[in-house]
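Entry for the shared binder. Reason: the reviewer on the internal report wants the predicted structure included alongside the sequence.
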Amino acid sequence: MSQYLSSNMNPMRLFNALTRVANKPLFFSANDRRPYSHQANEPKTPLTQQKDVPTATYIDQTSTTRAWLPYALRWSCFLAIVAFTCLLEIAVVVVHLISWQNSGLVTDDGSGVLQIGSRFVPTLLATVYVFLASILLDDVKRTEPFARLSSPAGAHADLSVSWTADAWWDALFSSFPSRHKKTNWAMLCATLSFVFGFLVVSPLSSSLIVSQTVVLTQETRFLQLNIRPSMPIQAKSSPETFYRSISSVLRNVSTSAWISDHYAVLPFWPASFDNAPLGPILFETDQTWTSTTSVFSIEMTCEPMQLTNLTDGAVWDGTLVDGRYAHLSSPRGCTVFYASSYAEIGAVIWDKPGSFSSKLLFADSIDGISVPPPCSQYDEYYVTAGTSPDTIFVGEACEVLYFMGDAVVTANRTNGQSLVKIDEQQYRANRKLISSTLANISTFQDAFISSDWSIHLSASDIIGYTNQAKPIIEGPGNLLAALYDFSPDRMLADTTEQRRDVRQRIKGRFFGELLRNYFNDNLLHDPVETTGLIITSPRRLVVVSAVAITLEVVLVIILTSLLVVFVLTRPARRPLGLDADPNSAMSMAKLLSDDKGTVRAVSNTPTSTDEKSKLTQLTYRYGITQGKLRLIGQESPVTGPNYDSSSMGAQTQRGQAPINLNGMKTSTVFGIWPLIILIILLTIVMIAIFTLYIYSQGHKLYQKAFVYTVSVSVKGVDLGDVNPASIVTTLVAVVIGLWWGSLDTTLRMAQPFLALATGPVSGFKGASISYRSSYLLWASARAARRKHWLLFLVCTGAFLSQILTIAMSSLWSRQPGTVPMVMEIPKTLEIRTVPILSTGRLSNNPRGLDRRSVALSDLFGNLRASWVYGAVVQLSLNGPEPSWSSGGWSFVPIDLSPVNSSNVNIQSTLNTSQSNENSLNKVTLETPAIRGRLECSQYHPLDNASLWLEDWRLPDDAELNPNVTRGYELKGYLPLNHSIADHPFTTLFSSDRRLQCCQNMTNDTVGQSSIGYWSPNLKDRQSYYPAISKSWPANFTVKWIRGHAVEATLSYTDGTDLSDDKRNRLIWTEPPQVTALNCTPIIETTDASVTVDATNGRIVDFKLLGQPQEDRFAWTDDFVAYRHGPPMESEFDVNMTTSHGILFILGILGAADLENLIGATTLRSVPGGESFYSFSTAERLEEQTFNIRDSGLNVDYMTYAMLSLANNNHSALLDGEVLKETAQKTFTTFFQHFVNNRISMTSGGYLYQPLDEKFPSDIGEPYLRTKPPTNGTASNGNSTDRITKATISRPMEILSMSGTAAWICIVILGYLIITCVLLVIASRSYNRLLLRQVNSIADIAFLVAGSHRLLKTARERSLESLKHDDSIAAKLDWFITDQGDRRWGIEIVSKADVSVSPAPSMRESDTFSHSDGDSDGQDDVSWYDTVVSEIQAVGRY
């Protein structure tokens, strides 16, 4: 180490040394000058910390330790890089394990935090690592020459002072072994760490976390309905049991998710639920429940009964009539007789032994009813008699078995509906016959084979007034016949197996509905705890296993490589021999030895690349000794073969004129063509991103090239799908970043020398600075501080290129989407403007049958598509909306078969994961819309109870509670004002009948009863249904009555019995509460834009395109008759035209009393009227097809739906607002189903007609007794276009493009392009300023080797003091050396030198001639060097 001269140094020796120096001449001729080549003192402290002290006060010792390292190789920074990489490895492993164990990390709710965390953060961390790895590799590369020079044997010039490794591939290949060197493991591992980073870690990071729909399974505590306390099960049917069964079979809807046509499942539910879900919707979100529970089922085994004989005889058909007996025998010897009259036109009989009607008799029984032994094996008998073309009898004898067993049951939600499935194989293995201790099977049989079917589904009333044949139908045969439109012949057209399946379905459904009643009764029992699984399919953020495993392996390799680099780059193993960063010109000046051979060799370094390659053949060997760069050997003479020594002095010409700069071969700092290629690349990428972004906003990116994924699996284990799109874009961004990084590195190395070349600058801006160890924004800040603006732009671009990598990795996300396509589709229907055409019979006798009866009966004939059942099922059981309907509106349907027929997989077949998704096409188009609604106001005359209540004094034998002596009965009508005289009124029932049902008695306690019916507003007592009004639209009344009522049998006060139809009455123990609404129906239309599912017509979304307008064609024709029969007949056939609004109102007001469709209750009251039928003034309890009569409840289907909307809260409907709201919802829903009833795409329906429909020419002449038609016979039309443009949205996997990321990429690429253009412009001047590159030690050393003033100043001053000394300026230019040579390099200039170019030579007084005795000539040595040498010689003595 350097130290102060010892105090005991011999003064005489120092004096002799100075004397020898003094005896030498101080001035020499120009011929004796030589370059300045040796430094007198070696400082004790590092170069960056030296102070200005006299040079004679320090001496150098060979034991000096110099351990400067760049920042990235210092242990603190290096370990930080290792720690960061280790954290990356840990993070990937942790998130991979969490995702693997939990089927994802978190649920993807689309929030911004999750989007940033999944798409930006992984690439951000990868980009940070790649940046740190690039710094590490850069520091290893730039210190590698010094590490080689510090070896004891030094290094060849081509491996040290002339060695460069600008690109990573140069470093990679240079690390491999060769003839002159071994494998450079430090550089190899550093390069691999960087290469793996930008080729693997960065591209794959964008695909590490993706959003996918996953299956998530969670074990959960469930509760199960407890039915044990009330066993054995007793079956109890109710009107709602029949309603649910009929609705389910006819409309194919679920009344409870636990009940199906084949099984009944004991309900279970998560313990977190407040109530047991028994309805059709178990949960609102898409999920699956799985648990083991009890399952019930029935199985019918039927044997055919062959017709063995047909005999004539008297049969009972109300009276004895002529008929015949069909002998039907089973394979087991059971024979039954089927008795039918000759007038019978078919039958459907479903009965059981012991309750046979007069139609079935046992052949071997004395009374025909007792069951003989061969027939005791059967539980049910089914007989169908057909008459077309000939009479045919088909019968079956069936055995019914009831089973129960445990099985795994799965409940899930599909398309908004809950679906329960059982493990049938497990159930069949576990099931057993239900024992008598578990259930009373006979009660189930009795409930099913019941005459109540004819009450709740009265075939005789439904088809009684139509032109259809009226067969005999009994028992469950009513529902069976309804499926075949009450036609036995149509039923017989089915195969035997099909008929058996239908009967099994009906039997199984009713069995399940009976169990549903039992389930409801057991809800109060404490449930049983069990366990199960909840399986959901959320969209979650999932770690792709294939990517994660790859990253984990690569990061382990990288960590290993980093540890190798850390060990091998420690100063003890890889000394550099440096005190400071050697990248600045001033640092190189301090490092350069004053040895003349070294200086001469460095000074003669060629300019061009070709000449440098020749230099490497000379095998110069350099080394760093005592902190100095020295030439320590030369294995070939300078003038050796094939070497032109003149080339060594290409830039040093003694005593010659200035060199022509235009003719000199120069090395380029920036090549123009590489910059132009980069500009083209950046432009292409920017245009591609912009184009894809614009395209993705409209047409979507759905082609296979974009959404194609690579499925990775190892030995059957699925490791996820990888989308190459994000990897490719990330890789492109990485390439751009690397390319830009090379520009950034080149300019950072050249910028100080460019600044020196443009003019004299202080050390702060030129000779004393280096940007080599400054990166990104720090380099930008330093450049801005020194006003190096182009470098500022380039360094900022380097930072933005890292942001570009992150942004481009976040461009894409593969997710479900829709692809729009436009297709022209023809219209076939429009809203009806021509009234509905029907037929009827009109009598010249005004007291004859009403002509409307046939048309009104046809409204209810097809129960399979019944609009009444459909509406009430939707409102009460959460049934589906009709197709082409939504939000109360009905939309004119359009035939979408062209859409479905064109449904091809436009994503080709490269990836079959989307092969079935195109079936869910959604079509957006414009079509007319129609809606029915109500405007209601509440009645106030109800305050006067005498207008609508009859006050009764009850006799003792009134069969009421003995404490009740006074009662109230509802009158048959309700006045609509306060007048009692002839006034408008409405009925309390749906028609003018007296109520007699239903009480609510529990243990002799009178409970509350509710009554609700919709009824027409009639002008006077002469008005009758269906002639309810002469002007339309006609108002009607919605009523809700609630109070305590009992059913009583009354007599007159004198003891005389009332007539049978007047005796049974409903008596209220106190005046009931009544709320009534006067409602006006409104039908309105408008145009709408709808989005519809092309597969089923379900409306996904709609938007009204205008204000609704009243439909002026809804009320024009009120069954206008057109006579077309012979003129003199008393009854003749007529054609009738009816507006759709009138037909609908009469339909909903007449459904609750089908017998009243012909005005039966009012014909008797017409003066002189005659009746061919016997009519009752009381409501018909035997007919409940479209109403519900249960304990404490007597309502039509409309009011039942309203009660369901009020959550079965009977008291809530007494609120006028609640009643109005539910009535409006109900009316609108019923109208929707009426609109969609029996629609044909060619002939239309009740509300729709074919385009330009007209009345037939032979419709006949209007009959004068009916109201003439309001409109003509032609359609006014409402369709301006016969073609509509449909936009088809097909569900597909699409590549979604982030708008934010896209615009970030576009802005950054635009910035880079502009900066590149500026570089192209500046590159020409830069290449002229720098005659050679400055990317190796020799390049920089060459610039300072002949600079006397610079070398002298560098050796006398510290780097820190020179950097901040503005008085010292340097310049890169041509100058004259001490030897008079003209040289291009860096030299300190004074103010006088600023205006001189080239720089003047140094003063002769600064040098002197020194002659060694053994030399042939004199060496030119400066007096300063001589003094220092003598002092050092004295110190060594």
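Summary line for the report: The chain has a mean pLDDT of 78.
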